[in-house]
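Need tokens for this chain, all 233 residues.
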Amino acid sequence: MTLKQLGKRQREQNKFADAIYTHTEGQKIAAELCDTPEIIYALNNIGTNYRRMSMLEDATTFHYRALRYCEEYSDKETYGAKKNKVVSLNGIGNISLRLGDYETADSVFRAALAGEKALGSALGQAINYANLGAIFEYNDQIDSAWIYYKKSMQMNIEAKSDLGISLCHGYFGGLYEKNGQIDSAIIVYKKAFAMKDKIDAWHWLNSCLSLAQLYIKRGNISSAKQLLTQAEE
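Here are the structure tokens for all 233 residues:
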């Protein structure tokens, strides 16, 4: 438990290499204890750490290992077992999304969403609604993207997830920007940017850089430089 939480904290602090080491140590202990749920949890965490570092091949290996444990584990009905499986699916879906394999990503995210609905997890639903929204956005199905991003926001509010709410402001900003509604995009990017103290820096960077790019487009170079300095730090 200590290693699990320490690794999570290290990831939130962007110490990804440290998080990988810590979660790997946790996985070794879980293996020695033959604690399958904790093995799966650790494998998914290691996969997530690698995804944050854009080391997608390594991330794929660990999320698929986690999924294989889920499928071979005798317990498939408890909350923890079902949650571990949907987390594994979500990791695989995110990698597929990054690689542009939208068909696989869509299938996996919908399976994960169904699992989160069955578990009654508002946060889990929020994550997968947002992921499906991203697929629609990449396919230029903007109306559908709005629907799924708004569903994600509703679930994040229900879950009281500051991170999810911030990310949704960013998603809205991206759709406004694509539609040429720059003023509206700036407004919602600012909302995401203002949540800096409530979310981790890795996620906050998206809103910071998006806002800086719009300031550059508007010719507001001094404000853009201020944001880029913060992003660099």
